[in-house]
Amino acid sequence: MFELLAYDRESKARRARLTTAHGIIDTPAFMPVGTQGSVKGVSPRELRELDAQIILGNTYHLFVRPGLDVIKHFGGLHNFMNWDGPILTDSGGYQIFSLAKLRKITEDGVEFQNHIDGARAFISPEIAMEIQAALGGDIVMALDECVPYPCEYDYAAQSAEMTTRWAKRCKAVASAVFSGESSTRSSRAPDALGTAHTTARQLLFGIVQGSTFEDLRKQSAQAIAELDFDGYAIGGVSVGEPEEEMMRAVEAAEPFSPGDKPRYAMGLGTPPQLLEMIARGMDMFDCVLPTRLARNGTAFTDTGTLNLKNAEFALDKRPIEENCTCDACREFSRGYIRHLIKAEEILGLRLITLHNLHFYLNLMNRARIEIERGTFDQFRKAFVADYKTREAMRVE
Ligand SMILES: [Zn+2]
Prior knowledge:
By secondary structure, this protein is of the alpha/beta class. The protein has helices at 44-49, 59-64, 68-73, 77-81, 93-98, 125-135, 153-177, 214-226, 243-253, 271-279, 289-294, 327-331, 334-342, 346-373, 376-395; strands at residues 2-7, 14-20, 23-27, 29-31, 33-34, 55-57, 87-89, 101-105, 110-113, 120-123, 139-141, 203-208, 231-234, 263-265, 284-286, 298-301, 304-307.
C-alpha cells in the first residue's frame, strides 16, 4: 500500500507511493482542498490537468450541506462531484471546533449547532466513521479534538488522551467493517450502512495531538501508533502558534510515527513550511492558502507572494511567474489579471487559483525529483532562503 522509493541522506525526506482504491498518490503530495465538494473555482477536469492526484473533502461541510442523504443518493462523493481520483475526507472535528456553535464535548462525542442554520447535531467517533463511509473517500480520518492555541498543559494532556480513546473507537469500527487481510482488501463487502461505494477498503489514518508540548506530542504519537493505523496525521498544528513551535511539535511526534506508513501534516502551510515539513519526514499536506489567497489577488512564486492588486502591476506585461507552465502564465499578463481582480471579474480569481494550485503541486513534484536525485536538502535550503529574503525585500 505504501511503497518507499527513495530517502534523502541529509534530512528525513522520503519519496514514496501510496496506493488507494481510486489510484496512486506520489508523495510528498499536496492535496487541494475541496471544502464543499468543490475546489473553489476549479473543475475536476482542471484538477486532473494540474496533475492533482488526490483532493480533500471536508466532512463537516458536506454533512451540514447538502447532507448525507443527497450524497448517498448520488452514490458517494466521487460520483456527486465527478472526481474519479483519490479523495481524503477529514473527520469533521476540525470544523466543529472552529466553525460550529455551542459545542459540548464529552467522552461520547461532540454536540454542536452548525454554522449555517443552527441545527443541532451530534458526532461521535462511530458517527464520524459512518459519515465518511457514506462519503466514500479513499482515506478517512479518525475523529480527534483539535485544541486551540494557546492551550493549558492539563487541558492539552486530557484532550490528547481522549483523542487516543476516540481513535481506538474509530479503529474498532473500521476493523469491523473492513475485516480481512491485505490480500482481500480489494473485495470489500457492502457494509451494514449500505454505503459501500468503493470497491476497495478505505484507509484509516490516526491523528496525533498534544498542542505545543513536546512530551504530549511524543506520548500521543506513541499511543496512536500502537493502534496500528494505515497512516499517521499530525493535527493541531498551524492553528496560530509561532512557526518554531509548529516545527518542534512535528519533530517531537515524527520519531514515534511509524516510518513505513504515510505521514500527513494537517492544514499546512506556506511553500517554505511544506519543504521544511518534508525534511522532517512528512509526506502529505493540505492547505487552503493557494485557493484562499487567490481570492484577494495573491499569487505564489519561487520568490514569495505577489499581491496583484498592487498598482505596480498595472502595466506589467510579464506573466505571474516567468517559465511557469500553468494556463494563467502561458496566456495572460500580470497587468490583465490585476485588472480582472480590481474589476472583481471571476476569471481573475480563477486564473490566480489555477496558478497557485499549479505552484503547490509543482513544488511537490520538484521535491520528489530532488529526493530521488539525492539533492533535496540543498534544494530546500536554497528555496527557503531565497523565498524568505525576496519576500521580505518586497514587503519593505
Ligand atoms: Zn503560473
